[in-house]
Amino acid sequence: MPIKADEKSTQGLIVGMQNWDKTFVEAGYLFGRKIEWVESKSIKGYGGLGLSAELGTSVTNNNPLVGLKASYTINMFISFGGSVIYYTDFSSWGLRFRPEIGVSMFGVRIVYGRNSTMFKPNFQGINNNVMSVTLFIPM
């Protein structure tokens, strides 16, 4: 879909929580653009690159589990995107790709994602499926 030439830059904090088998909290920053679709002045949203960290606890040794995440999302009632996440419990690591789809409105985003292995398939402690709720706070 075409985008108007007068897109406006937007950026801000991302905070959230995700759960399936294990619970993680997320905090980060989004570098993006506000978007108005040509077909309707009332449909607006944002999209952009997010850099964040997911924090949880390892199931194998109760060490902290950290996921450093780079993601790109489009959020206009329907929300979709993808993330690459480097997980570590400081004794081992794993790299995952996560496509996501869901809904978003007023900066709140609720999505389902599925972690797909890129490297280290035997890395334990992360959710294969993820339901996450995030809040975008413009700065």
Short précis:
With 139 residues, this protein is mostly beta strands.
Write the layout of secondary structure elements.
Elements: E1 8-19, E2 23-36, E3 44-57, E4 64-88, E5 93-105, E6 108-114, E7 116-119, E8 129-138
Antiparallel strand pairs: 1-2, 1-8, 2-3, 3-4, 4-5, 5-6, 5-7, 6-8
What does this structure look like?
The chain is mostly beta strands and 139 residues long. It has one domain (8-138): Porin, CATH 2.40.160.20. The chain is built from no helices and eight strands. A seven-stranded antiparallel β-barrel has the order 1-2-3-4-5-6-8. Strand 3 and strand 4 form a beta hairpin. The model is unreliable at 1-6 (pLDDT under 50).
Strands of the biggest beta sheet: in what spatial order? 1-2-3-4-5-6-8
| Percent strand | over 45%
Count structural domains. Answer: 1
CATH topology: Porin
Key terms:
single chain, 139 residues, Porin, 71% strand, disordered N terminus
